Amino acid sequence: MVSGQLNRKRRSSHEPPARKLIRRWRFECAVVLLALLGGVLGYLGFLRYGTAGGEVRSPLDLLYLTAQLFTLESGAVKPPVPWQLELARVLAPLATATALLAAMARIFADRVEMLRLARYRWHVVVCGLGRKGYQLVKEFRAVRWRVVAIESDEENNWTEACRDLGAIVLVADATDASVLAKARVVRAGHVIAVCGDDGANIEIAVRCHQLAGQARTHWQNRVKRFLPRPWRRAGPNVRCHVQIVDLQLSDLFRRHAVCNNLDPHFSAEILNIYENSSRLALMDHPLDGEGIPWNDNRAVHLVIVGFGRMGQSLALQAARMGHYANGKRLRLTAIDRDATKRNRVFTNRYPQFGQVCDFEVIEGESDDPELQGQIVDLADAPETLTTLAVCLDDDSEALMCALDILHKLSGLPTQFLVRMTDEAGLASLLEGAVDGSGQPVNVNTFDASESVVTLEMLLKHELDRLAQSIHDDFRENRRKEGRPETDKSMQPWDTLCSDFRDSNRQQADHIPVKLRAIGCRTERSGSSEPNGRSTFRFSGEADEVEILARMEHARWCAERLLAGWTYGPAPKNVAKKTHPDLVDWEDLSDQIKEYDREFVRLIPDLLESVDQRIVRCRPTS
Predict the structure, then answer these.
(1) CA–CA dist 185, 172 (Å, integer)
(2) Using CB atoms within 10 A as the burial measure, which of 67, 415, 417, 566 is most buried?
(3) Which long-range contacts (CB under 8 A, 24 or more apart) does 9-15 make?
(4) Domain 277-452 is in which class?
(5) pLDDT tens string 493-526
(6) What is the CATH number of domain 111-271?
(7) Which residues neighbour 530 within 8 Å (Cβ) at sequence distance 6 or greater?
(8) What is the pLDDT of residues 83-127, one digit of tens each?
(9) Topology of domain 460-616, per CATH?
(10) Boundaries of every domain in the chain
(11) In contact, 311 and 234? CB cutoff 8 Å
């Protein structure tokens, strides 16, 4: 049903200009049509009426009498009345009334929109109508969500397009608390801040947090006491999605009180297009290919050309996911014209990045033939599974760099990723690409804006289902051990702070890597297993569980190290970010090892809870 609605919206966006103009000015068109029809019929009616009565009237007299029909001044005539005049006496006043209604609608359009907005609840507020904002408005409207868009630029090209989709558009500053109140953010289901400035987006989130707090206080003090007891828990709920492109600002905001708010009526989450892009790219095109078994001697190598925001996000995502059954560390090489400077900034933000993977930077121009030859040598390294990712900001430069490197490759089993912002433009030139020997090459593009900023990626429905299932299972097991409910990690999903949510999401993301290591994959299950339990069993139970438990511990260590944690004696110190379990698998206590084994054993049931099942695609090594 949703896809059908989306198809209808796509067709409507390509309709002829004349039809689109008529649809936009439909009231005016109706007035003109009624006026023409009433005028012609009135002229003919008066002509026939005069002829039948023996009166001869001039054309000007007839036109004058016809014009008076629109003001109800000339229609009072004695029967018999010709049918043309009879019909004109109805159509002409109707045209006048329609014109008055259309004029009033234009004059009081803002008032009408405010009346509509006053009835909105659980709607969507989109702040910033760039390409991403419009894409989100279009997707939400396609599934019939009510949408309010806020844009400060009156000349913005997307405002009329959003109005055509049925959204209410407020031309105002979205960082103004009064404007957000006017958009009724405290009654909204989602507030999405996708302005071009990170600071403005953060300010919108802070304002929404303040408004939600004020509305909740009003609810508790003035309204709640008059309601029946079962209704008293109800109140305004705001889920705010904040686009933050800068990695340093993103880290700072994660630690802000707005982002770590424990109030079930407000939550803030970071929306980062580069993070979403890199996550999609590595899920669709995994670095380990069909999987790295425990007895595989190959190492995984990611070569990134262009270490800007996209390249850094791809490196971070690879470092979080690149933990394989053979225990070999991910090798990562970053190439950029300002590699030294960008590496200094990057390692300052993530000082322990080198402990997670083998990291190297090379400075040089992407179009330098000598450097391109060096890239080919990296791809030709023995016992290495290499992925080349071109992450340059300019599409044409990225295309030329990719083609130059492809022509120098010769029969190497290398995966090729190219960042393109428009999948229908220059990206199409990479289809059917071949290397220097004429062999086809596995070239894939990623980061097409319309595929990154989507309703599904924004709401994370599928990912959050698995992540929430992981968290619920964690709470249940820790509760049995006596961990207090006041512990931050024991909070329900809706009140869980963003760090713990992201941790669960990263754990969910790594499950396909684990399954590929033992020759398995997931598929949509046709129906749930009895009692919600999966029939899948690990073969050689102890061996496979042990392998995957080691992978899980390595992944967890990388997650903690990248978040700024270091090793420290027990107990863990949250303020100083020290943890006693940041050690090798062999040095872990049996209790902590059993935690990882426990999670691995539960993977089939966790997947079954989100309607997925595990199938084997190759025999166990």
Answers:
(1) 15
(2) 417
(3) 9/138, 9/141, 9/142, 9/165
(4) alpha beta
(5) 877 877 788 889 899 999 999 999 999 999 887 6
(6) 3.40.50.720
(7) none
(8) 888 888 888 888 888 888 777 766 666 666 777 777 888 899 999
(9) Globin-like (1.10.490)
(10) 13-106, 111-271, 277-452, 460-616
(11) no
